[in-house]
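Input set for joint prediction.
Command: fold jointly, output tokens.
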Amino acid sequence: MHGSILKVGICQLRTTYDIEKNMSRAIEMTSDAARLGADIVALPEMFLCPYEPDHIKKSMAFASRALEGLRKSALEHGIYIVAGSLPYTRHGGKPFNRSFVFDTGGRVVCFHDKLHLFDCEPPGGPVVRESDIIKEGHHLDTFMTPWGMAAVIVCYDIRFTPLLQLLADRGVVLLFVPAAFSITTGRAHWEMLVRLRAVEIQGFVVGIQPAYDPGLKYVPWGHSIVANPWGDVLMDAGKEEVVEVVDIDMEDAGRIRGSFPLLDHRRLDLYSTEWRDN
Amino acid sequence: MHGSILKVGICQLRTTYDIEKNMSRAIEMTSDAARLGADIVALPEMFLCPYEPDHIKKSMAFASRALEGLRKSALEHGIYIVAGSLPYTRHGGKPFNRSFVFDTGGRVVCFHDKLHLFDCEPPGGPVVRESDIIKEGHHLDTFMTPWGMAAVIVCYDIRFTPLLQLLADRGVVLLFVPAAFSITTGRAHWEMLVRLRAVEIQGFVVGIQPAYDPGLKYVPWGHSIVANPWGDVLMDAGKEEVVEVVDIDMEDAGRIRGSFPLLDHRRLDLYSTEWRDN
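tokens >
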């Protein structure tokens, strides 16, 4: 039996240029989180390496081993693992930026390929052209957990509000967002995005970032955050590498939906957000 | 000829229980803003009275005179006026919560009836049942200005992201949001909402609130805010009654759309937001 309290584990990994080391560290951190009592443990976007094209390409060769290690960790500890994201391709060619979700039996219950690729020059940089090395996804999925309906989207996806409307329509109350916001976009928008998306879906949003490291070319912002349905920050992991476990009370979603019924107040007689089934 | 610099005037009126006085003060503040050089001047939601049902009902009798005074002010000073909102009905019965926009010739170029009525109990109160006294709107409009395409939505409307997607689709780069967030919802969400909506539409958002007044039953948060397309706060009016004029450079919208093309990155092959023409 599961109550309404879910213990979410955040692995704010410090990615280095040693892919082998990042892989071991990521798997180890999921075990650490499990030992701290976590029910669901999450990793950041592209946890195998810094968010830099050459390293992402190199990390492709490690994807299978990393997934196998995380599968075993999920099974061994009886936890869900939201495996951040990694470059994934079945038949060669450009990979997806894919997040896998393992359940307590080590089964893949969901995956998400990043839908919106970050081809941007934020004011203050750095310039990124993700589409040079990554293929965009084409589907949007959810997965049921003992604590409620959940989903994963990746990083830049969080900026696109139609996705959030669609996920809310599908009953999502727990949204994981593995990300790698830089110090520029992180400082400017990260906290607002996580908090306000939680308000909008009337659920919990778990944003997982790599640790800050000024020695990298692409410097991550850190600050993994968990926000409740009122947009309060339940946990901010700060800048350094850390494993954090946070209690969230899933009943808060029902409470806020009762007293502040934002989703019910939508004027679906006037507008709609539709997923085009291709 | 107009350059790309628009001077936006904010009238953060302190509403009292004296409707006649609020009306005169509102008109006077638009003149003050014009004298400070404003091109477009905006008032808060329900500027004729505190946001309380009995007073809103009483204020209906003043709507025509208030609009006539603002029309004259627009014409006299050659400014646009976004006339916050007031209760408006043509044929009796429940009024709309309507915002009128006057152009420099005193013509009504747009109006907006609040689409989402605030029937909520925010954590910490106060409880509001707007639908008891207000009729919900049914249309969404825009108006062209010499500085670009503009629109008005009212208060609670800002929480509903499909509206923002639709307005962005219609080319809106300048969005006015007359509002009356309370100290509860104001503290929790107001600044995030104004800033993030500006990021999402890649334009400017002007949020106009009544001044804070702890002597009122419904205590407004104050803090009228102007945010640029990167979500920076260009002006925060604080708590007290004040007229502020802010320079905004409309070319910032084009610049950000060039380097950080969020609207172009939308996956319109996968999802869409549609307005249902009734």
